[in-house]
């Protein structure tokens, strides 16, 4: 499913994108960004095309208009999306059907048309003419989607020609009066709209849809079967933001959600889903990377749930298994991998009897990062505002509900401003007093403030890193061949002596506590607690490995951990390997 979104943001802010959780979209458009050419508009994991807003000569204040079209970096890496047209009113991109898993090439446009009437702003008529020309051109090459703020109120006007089948247009001889190349419009579900008004631009939009065979999604499919309003202001509400699609792909759209009004913008965010080969783009990009060994750890032990004494008792209960292992380790027919696994199982069985094991639940829901000044009072007002917004969406003509919503919205925005100002003032006062009295707490306060900064995206793609490492270890690498020759010429006889208990015991004592294990789940604490009983099996296993010249396969495995998801789980050396 290709997730598409569009929003009149009323002034770009990265915090607005985070609050509305725009990261769930594959492609989303922002209109009325009010940005200029040097504005910082980057959004993590996304690439964008930018059309700056317009600054009229001799006019002060902010710019008007402005369009930003974001798409995930995966599309850029595979060249699945290219920009094909741009003006002050629209940006058009092409989605390659083969690289995006689509049935057709898709030409997607993000559009903003100012709200002035044709009599005041004649250029609006030219905008629809330009869009019509582009749609007719792109329709010959694929299918077209247009999303954005058209400032057009269309009520329930029909956006196609009714009764244009040949059966209704026959002459006395039974032949059709229509041209031979005429294609009848498809019969689509009736369009509902809670906005009963029609303006001049609304009629222009309907004429454009009929001429170019584009159809309005709003009020026709699941999620917006009623035709919710998309714009809310104290003077009233209306439906002026749209998704328009080629009629041939109308039934490929599964839903259309219109978000309830909120404090971030006067407009609602629109979200739709287009059928495609699910996750096709991502599998094509990462098809050369083996992710079988990249699964997260199954879980972790809570070492505070047990004690050293209980673990030692559990190891003592495994005395028979340890004695059996000591017999097997001296058997030359036993495989090194089996021996390593048997010893690990003895240690883990003792750990299971002593400590609680908490399995990871897989992918964790990422919590939205809130500002430190966003206190409980702000949270309460936000919840009440969201509840009122949801009710207003269902009953947009309720005057009392509309008045209550906009009054609470003003109070909430004032509360945010005052709370943030007070928070900053308190921090400044606190830092002034701590600078001399408590430098440690001073820097702790500074560091806590820094934690809200967003981490920059890894500039090196995963596929590029994988190819680099493969190339680095190619067999025909002359540098590696030279290194092998140099190593073979070095006399390493002093390393060929057998391990003794003293050096292994000293190695165990040097292990640090509170370190995460490798994928074998053997913590340093397990070896430190049970070193008296596990020392002999470990020494015998090391000597068997030394004499056989074969390293256990399990000790060569590694598991890359995503620190952003599991900050407490970091890849470490295996405890047994560290002892060696």
Task: Write up this protein.
The two termini are 50 Å apart. The radius of gyration is 33 Å and the shape is elongated. The strands form four sheets. The protein has a six-stranded mixed β-sheet with strand order 3-4-2-1-14-13. The protein has a six-stranded mixed β-sheet with strand order 5-6-7-8-12-9. α11 runs antiparallel to α12. It has three domains: 284 residues, Endonuclease/exonuclease/phosphatase (Deoxyribonuclease I, Chain A, 4-Layer Sandwich), CATH 3.60.10.10; 162 residues, no CATH class; 75 residues, no CATH class. By secondary structure, it is α+β, with helices and mostly antiparallel strands. The protein contains 18 helices and 16 strands. This is Endonuclease/exonuclease/phosphatase domain-containing protein. It comes from Mytilus edulis (Blue mussel).
CATH homologous superfamily classification of the largest domain: Endonuclease/exonuclease/phosphatase
Under CATH at level 1, the class of the largest domain stands as Alpha Beta
Q: What's the overall average pLDDT, rounded?
A: 82
The value of Rg in angstroms is: 33 Å
Topology-level CATH name of the largest domain: Deoxyribonuclease I, Chain A
Protein name: Endonuclease/exonuclease/phosphatase domain-containing protein
InterPro entries: Endo/exonu/phosph_ase_sf
List the helices and strands and how they pair.
Blueprint: E1 2-8, H1 14-19, E2 27-31, E3 46-51, E4 67-72, H2 73-77, E5 81-87, E6 90-95, H3 97-100, E7 106-112, H4 123-139, E8 143-149, H5 200-212, E9 214-216, E10 231-233, E11 236-238, E12 241-246, E13 253-258, E14 270-274, H6 280-285, E15 299-302, H7 308-317, H8 319-329, H9 336-354, E16 356-359, H10 376-394, H11 399-437, H12 439-450, H13 462-472, H14 478-488, H15 501-509, H16 524-529, H17 531-548, H18 575-579
Parallel strand pairs: 1-2, 7-8
Antiparallel strand pairs: 1-14, 2-4, 3-4, 5-6, 6-7, 8-12, 9-12, 10-11, 13-14, 15-16
Helix pairs in contact: 4-5, 7-9, 8-9, 8-17, 9-17, 10-11, 11-12, 15-17
Protein name: Endonuclease/exonuclease/phosphatase domain-containing protein
């Amino acid at each position: 499913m290709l997730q598409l979104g569009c929003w009149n943001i009323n002034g770009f802010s990265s915090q607005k994108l985070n609050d509305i959780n725009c990261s769930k979209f594959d492609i989303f458009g922002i209109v009325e960004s009010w940005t200029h050419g040097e504005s910082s508009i980057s959004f993590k994991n996304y690439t964008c095309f930018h059309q700056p807003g317009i600054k009229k000569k001799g006019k002060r204040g902010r710019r008007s208009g402005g369009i930003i079209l974001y798409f995930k970096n995966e599309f850029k890496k595979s060249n699945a999306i290219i920009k094909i047209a741009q003006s002050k009113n629209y940006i058009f991109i092409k989605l390659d059907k083969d690289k995006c898993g689509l049935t057709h090439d898709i030409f997607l446009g993000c559009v903003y048309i100012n709200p002035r009437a044709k009599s005041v702003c004649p250029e609006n008529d030219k905008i629809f003419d330009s869009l019509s020309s582009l749609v007719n051109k792109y329709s010959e090459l694929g299918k077209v989607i247009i999303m954005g703020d058209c400032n057009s109120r269309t009520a329930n006007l029909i956006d196609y020609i009714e009764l244009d089948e040949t059966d209704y247009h026959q002459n006395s001889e039974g032949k059709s009066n229509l041209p031979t190349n005429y294609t009848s419009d498809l019969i689509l579900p009736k369009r509902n709209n809670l906005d009963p008004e029609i303006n001049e631009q609304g009629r222009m939009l309907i004429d454009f849809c009929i001429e170019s065979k584009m159809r309005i999604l709003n009020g026709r499919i699941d999620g917006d079967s009623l035709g919710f309003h998309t714009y809310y202001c104290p003077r009233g509400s209306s439906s002026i933001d749209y998704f328009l699609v080629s009629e041939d792909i109308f039934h490929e759209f599964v839903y259309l959600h219109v978000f309830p009004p909120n404090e971030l913008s006067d407009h609602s965010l629109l979200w739709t889903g287009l059928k495609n080969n699910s996750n096709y783009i991502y599998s094509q990009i990462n098809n050369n990377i083996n992710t079988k060994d990249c699964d997260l750890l199954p879980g972790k032990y809570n070492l505070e749930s047990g004690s050293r004494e209980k673990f030692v008792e559990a190891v003592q209960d495994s005395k028979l298994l340890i004695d059996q292992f000591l017999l097997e380790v001296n058997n030359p027919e036993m495989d090194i991998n089996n021996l390593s696994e048997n010893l690990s199982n003895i240690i883990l069985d003792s750990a299971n009897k002593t400590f609680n094991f908490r399995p990871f639940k897989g992918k964790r829901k990422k919590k939205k990062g809130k500002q430190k000044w966003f206190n409980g009072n702000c949270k309460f007002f936000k919840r009440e505002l969201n509840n009122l917004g949801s009710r207003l969406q269902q009953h947009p003509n309720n005057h009392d509900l509309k008045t209550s919503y906009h009054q609470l919205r003003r109070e909430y925005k004032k509360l945010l401003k005052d709370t943030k100002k007070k928070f900053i003032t308190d921090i400044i006062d606190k830092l002034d007093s701590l600078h001399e009295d408590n430098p440690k707490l001073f820097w702790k306060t500074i560091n806590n403030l820094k934690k809200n900064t967003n981490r920059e995206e890894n500039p090196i793609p995963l596929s590029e890193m994988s190819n680099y490492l493969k190339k680095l270890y190619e067999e025909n690498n002359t540098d590696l061949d030279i290194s092998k020759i140099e190593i073979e010429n070095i006399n390493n006889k002093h390393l060929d002596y057998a391990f003794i208990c003293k050096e292994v015991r000293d190695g165990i004592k040097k292990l640090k506590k509170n370190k995460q294990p490798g994928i074998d789940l053997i913590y340093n604490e397990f070896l430190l607690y049970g070193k008296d009983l596990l020392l002999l099996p470990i020494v015998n296993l090391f000597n068997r490995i030394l004499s056989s010249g074969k390293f256990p396969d399990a000790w060569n495995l590694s598991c890359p951990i995503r620190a952003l998801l599991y900050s407490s789980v970091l890849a470490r050396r295996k405890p047994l390997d560290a002892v060696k």
